């Protein structure tokens, strides 16, 4: 069923969190409980966004139907529907990240200056769907799936909202919006300010064990861009193979060293 055994544990955890969402949705009416649940789940759902990203680079299941179902659950957590990141991120950003006039996650303004983190966050989050759709014009089949499953996700949200408006707002809609914004915010530190044509010097890396455990090795970002189709579990090994080519300034310092 799984293409890679390494996906079993994270996917099980994500599906259990999905089940928890529906338990809370069906059994809670208190706005205070909803508010607490929303606050508690911000970090887990932020991490789920990273795993959704990995899935759209290397799909989890061998069977297409299972992948589509998983993507609906991912969308309800992260606000990112089927093929949006495939189009916007894989076919767009990964091909264009060295060219800030084309990059779908560009960090430069039109005048060539660098966006601040808030400006970048809003720019990437608010343009994610339009830019993904635009890239999709070159890939009609993927664009069609993107549109169909975005429609399915919206239909599910409408149904959940009709059934219980307050529950749907706090358990699904607010987290989807927050997760999309947080995803854009988190990605601002991946490339912002690295103006170069050298792919080995164009990404910041985070080798923290905790960070990479939570995000599926997303901290090995140069390796991820070097071979973006490689499974997340293989990124540390690939990083070791290419790390001699990565400049020292492309490593993010731990927070306790940033002031030094």
Automatic annotation (TrEMBL):
InterPro entries for this protein: FA_desaturase_dom (IPR005804)
Entry coiled-coil feature ranges: none
Alphabetically ordered keywords of this record: Membrane, Transmembrane, Transmembrane helix
Domain Fatty acid desaturase: 33-250
Keyword Transmembrane found: yes
Transmembrane feature ranges: 9-26, 32-52, 146-163, 169-187
Keyword Transmembrane part of the UniProt annotation: yes
UniProt GO BP: lipid metabolic process
Pfam families: FA_desaturase (PF00487)
Name this protein carries in UniProt: Fatty acid desaturase
């Amino acid at each position: 069923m799984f293409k890679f055994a390494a996906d079993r544990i994270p996917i099980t955890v994500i599906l259990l969190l999905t089940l928890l969402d529906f338990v809370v949705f069906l059994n809670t009416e208190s706005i205070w409980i909803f508010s607490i649940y929303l606050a508690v789940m911000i970090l887990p759902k932020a991490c789920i966004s990273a795993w959704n990203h990995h899935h759209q680079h290397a799909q989890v299941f061998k069977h297409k139907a299972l992948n589509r179902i998983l993507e609906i659950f991912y969308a309800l957590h992260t606000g990112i529907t089927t093929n949006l990141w495939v189009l916007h991120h894989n076919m767009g950003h990964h091909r264009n990240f060295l060219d800030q006039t084309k990059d779908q996650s560009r960090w430069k303004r039109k005048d060539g200056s660098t966006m601040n983190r808030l400006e970048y966050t809003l720019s990437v989050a608010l343009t994610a769907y339009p830019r993904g759709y635009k890239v999709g014009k070159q890939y009609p089949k993927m664009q069609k799936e993107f549109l169909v499953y975005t429609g399915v996700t919206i239909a599910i949200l409408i149904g959940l909202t009709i059934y219980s408006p307050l529950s749907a707002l706090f358990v699904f809609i607010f987290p989807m919006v927050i997760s999309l914004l947080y995803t854009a915010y988190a990605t601002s530190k991946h490339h912002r300010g690295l103006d170069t044509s050298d792919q080995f010097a164009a990404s910041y890396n985070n080798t923290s064990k905790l960070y990479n455990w939570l995000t599926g090795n997303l901290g090995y970002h140069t390796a991820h861009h070097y071979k973006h189709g490689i499974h997340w579990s293989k990124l540390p090994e690939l990083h070791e193979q290419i790390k001699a080519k990565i400049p020292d300034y492309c490593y993010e310092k731990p927070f306790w060293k940033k002031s030094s």
